Amino acid sequence: MMRTRPLKVALLGCGVVGSEVARIMTTHADDLAARIGAPVELVGVAVRRPDKVREGIDPDLVTTDATALVKRGDLDVVVEVIGGIEPARALITTAFEHGASVVSANKALIAQDGAALHAAADEHGRDLYYEAAVAGAIPLIRPLRESLAGDKVNRVLGIVNGTTNFILDKMDSTGAGYQEALDEATALGYAEADPTADVEGFDAAAKAAILAGIAFHTRVRLDDVHREGMTEVTAADFASAKEMGCTIKLLAICERAADGASVTARVHPAMIPLGHPLAGVRGAYNAVFVESDAAGQLMFYGPGAGGAPTASAVLGDIVAVCRNRLSGARGPGESAYAALPVSPMGEVVTRYHISLDVADKPGVLAQVATVFAEHGVSIDTVRQQGKDGEASLVVITHRASDAALGGTVEALRKLDTVRGVASIMRVEGE
Amino acid sequence: MMRTRPLKVALLGCGVVGSEVARIMTTHADDLAARIGAPVELVGVAVRRPDKVREGIDPDLVTTDATALVKRGDLDVVVEVIGGIEPARALITTAFEHGASVVSANKALIAQDGAALHAAADEHGRDLYYEAAVAGAIPLIRPLRESLAGDKVNRVLGIVNGTTNFILDKMDSTGAGYQEALDEATALGYAEADPTADVEGFDAAAKAAILAGIAFHTRVRLDDVHREGMTEVTAADFASAKEMGCTIKLLAICERAADGASVTARVHPAMIPLGHPLAGVRGAYNAVFVESDAAGQLMFYGPGAGGAPTASAVLGDIVAVCRNRLSGARGPGESAYAALPVSPMGEVVTRYHISLDVADKPGVLAQVATVFAEHGVSIDTVRQQGKDGEASLVVITHRASDAALGGTVEALRKLDTVRGVASIMRVEGE
């Protein structure tokens, strides 16, 4: 069964992930050959800084001319682990034009241009795989695309950013505030010097767009994803969550509407009951909870980032793409036949936890309750606490649309007796 | 892309799983066609009792002659959900001989005859898929075989039997004894009238054999799996586990030896720390924890049985096999190139929790400790409790081989001062 001509792989980028991919291709060469049915050979590594010493990488393979590398014409697989939009996009497109299949770990690019890249792969009869783009080592794209291909997925609820989960877990377990927990994450290397992409939810939003598209067999653009960061989550929010038997997670939530005719995708911090499997996901781990008609509730858990875990996912894709090359077949490509509209955030329906600072005098609760009722938002429970003329009201609602809740909050702010809206947080996973 | 000739599927068995498969094939026909690239048509259903009313199944499709059905010669896929060894094995073999690919949910058959069935599939150039055979709806075979194809799996630790997990979870949460918890499981339909296959670990052992083979790219026969049931787990064991910050689960454990040159597979009850992700798997849910070189720790969680969840896995396989048929390709078959020996249980290394009933007099601990030392089993902690001339010793060991522990226990039983060995339980997941 084993053929002798090796399959040729080029690596674009040789940072934390790329160097691990190269290392495993060398150290596990025999296993990879046995699993693929032919040896794989690393024939080029495109880097920005050619002078940097890269242990275990033959210096003769290193080049700064990534474009020339992908144009060789004899490549079977191009592995893109550069990240960002350009030059990654141009290089991937050129790779397809010159007959290579592509394995990418680039969530931003796939979220933004996945449809066009899939079209380019189709045009040239090649594969585009990107298991590593969502939740690192956790098999997620393949289970959603293949294992659940005979099922109907209704909801994907995930912790898909390790940095923010580390910060929130720290706040939960120590009572620390956001800044203190962020500082610790930075010191330990879990957060980058500029943590914006993580803490503002951009990274999670890209993953949500990819997951929603695959789960619902439709196209979900990055712009379709409602995004709220977690920089305003406070120690007081965690205290409130604890009182409700909840913790707080930054969640990526992709849902099919009850009538099945539209979908939504969003990223925001939310309270989640401690009994929910996602509540127990600690530190920088990721986990994605999937609800479908027939399978019911599934969860996939593991390290969502890091060189070796991401390399594991990349190598799984390399093996798959190589097998396809040998058999002359192609893996499942984009499946967007359902072409469902993406509804705006206002139509999302969930529950809310709202903390209000109010005047400590009779009739306030009645006023507040009236505002909720006028906007069609049904109250589940209210807790009132008063001290020295100051008081707080904590309202937990039944399920209501985001638009109705927004209208309610706007009206509450106009009440003389409401001094401020201390926090609004969605409650998920019930 | 859509071709009009439908792919033809025959169903062998129409019980809880088969009827769900048929139902979903009808209700989701359009989605399945879009995802496969061609419509799929159910052309025959082999049953034992043809007169039973089967809602949603065209009576004209029903036959009692399964052999004639698989010999039609125009089938693309045969779905085997009969269970047991025969006639399932003969029907699958005949299906391959007549040009069909096979999707099976039959753990016992795959565990016993997987190698021969894969060989038959190879001989006829057809696919054999069986995602549903292990842990129901949870994608596990595909992630191990494909997503982790570029990684080196070292350990698989799983709760793969829902009945026993329900019973143990009930004992843990209520303090009930085994019989009481089993009675409740039976009353609620989680346990069969004869629960032997579940509670004695036969079902889990078949799954362990399949998982070990796929994870380590080697053949592991059912006979290679060391198996202990959970009927002797007591409320006292749970009390001991709680004192250690543990719970008790029936685990399927597949391990690669530290030197990589051999593997082991076993099923037995074990203590597991409450902080381990498997400890939180409640009720009849299943979960499988996978440790690999690059990916690190992954967990896959979901419903391990039931008609609809199992049907979800079967349908995912039907879609994959149909796609392969259309493209003329085959999915990854058996991968057993590593050909690693399976070591006997005596070579398994783990920790142990041992409860001894001993005479309440001076020197007993010294005697007991000497026996452990003589057998090379290092003690981690000992707790001694005495009352009215009776005493108990609880010993927790460091890691030791099963053979060394066995020798230790045998010698302990011979001590005059040891009145009995109340329980021995392995401690895993640390």
UniProtKB/TrEMBL annotation, chains A, B:
- Taking the record's annotation, the residue ranges forming a coiled coil are none
Q: Which keywords label this protein?
A: Amino-acid biosynthesis, Metal-binding, Methionine biosynthesis, NAD, NADP, Oxidoreductase, Sodium, Threonine biosynthesis
**NCBIfam families documented for this protein:** PRK06349.1
ACT domain residues: 353-426
Pfam families recorded for this chain? ACT, Homoserine_dh, NAD_binding_3
- Binding locations of NADPH: K107
- Domain of life the protein comes from: Bacteria
Q: In which pathway does it act?
A: Amino-acid biosynthesis; L-methionine biosynthesis via de novo pathway; L-homoserine from L-aspartate: step 3/3; Amino-acid biosynthesis; L-threonine biosynthesis; L-threonine from L-aspartate: step 3/5
PANTHER family in the record, alphabetically? HOMOSERINE DEHYDROGENASE
The enzyme's E.C. designation:
1.1.1.3
Residues of the signal peptide? none
Task: Write out the catalytic residues in the record.
Answer: K207
Listed GO biological process terms: methionine biosynthetic process; threonine biosynthetic process
Q: Which residues of the sequence carry a binding annotation for NADP(+)?
A: L12, G13, C14, G15, V16, V17, G18, S19
Q: What does this protein do?
A: Catalyzes the conversion of L-aspartate-beta-semialdehyde (L-Asa) to L-homoserine (L-Hse), the third step in the biosynthesis of threonine and methionine from aspartate.
Would you identify the family this protein belongs to, as annotated?
Belongs to the homoserine dehydrogenase family.
Q: So what does this thing catalyse? A: L-homoserine + NAD(+) = L-aspartate 4-semialdehyde + NADH + H(+); L-homoserine + NADP(+) = L-aspartate 4-semialdehyde + NADPH + H(+)
Organism expressing this protein natively: Streptomyces tagetis
InterPro entries membership: ACT-like_dom_sf, ACT_dom, Asp/hSer_DH_NAD-bd, HDH, HDH_cat, HDH_CS, NAD(P)-bd_dom_sf
Report what the protein is called.
Homoserine dehydrogenase
> Which cofactors are required for activity?
a metal cation
Q: What class of enzyme is it?
A: oxidoreductase
